[in-house]
Design brief:
A hairpin with a 6-residue loop joins strand 3 (about 55-60) and strand 4 (about 65-70). The protein is an alpha+beta fold and about 80 residues long. It has one domain (about 1-80). The chain is built from two helices and five strands. The longest helix has 10 residues, at about 5-15. The chain has a three-stranded antiparallel sheet with strand order 3-4-5, with helices on one face. Strands 1-2 form a two-stranded antiparallel ribbon.
Length: about 80
């Protein structure tokens, strides 16, 4: 996330309609997507808070169990890949 401020990232995601909690160790967020939000909108929102060159996000679904990673440091920055 830009300037490494977890609170700013959480606030930005909340403005985009996501339910966000900062976890106790303050380096991770618990994010709940509203049912009406499209997968593309979720990806766009998450990319918007990542650092441009080295930011990354690990995303796990509680309902399907699928896991995804998006890493801006690789050769395909900003792309979500299923693990």
């Amino acid at each position: 996330m830009r300037r490494d401020n977890i609170r700013m990232a959480a606030a930005k995601l909340r403005r985009r309609g996501l339910d966000v909690d900062i976890l106790p160790h303050k380096t991770s967020l618990r994010i709940r997507k509203p049912d009406e939000m499209d997968w593309r909108d979720l990806k766009r929102a998450l990319r918007s808070v990542l650092q441009p060159r080295r930011g990354s996000v690990f995303l796990c679904s509680e309902t399907t169990g699928r896991a995804f990673i998006c890493n801006n440091a690789g050769n395909q920055p900003g792309r979500f890949e299923r693990l």
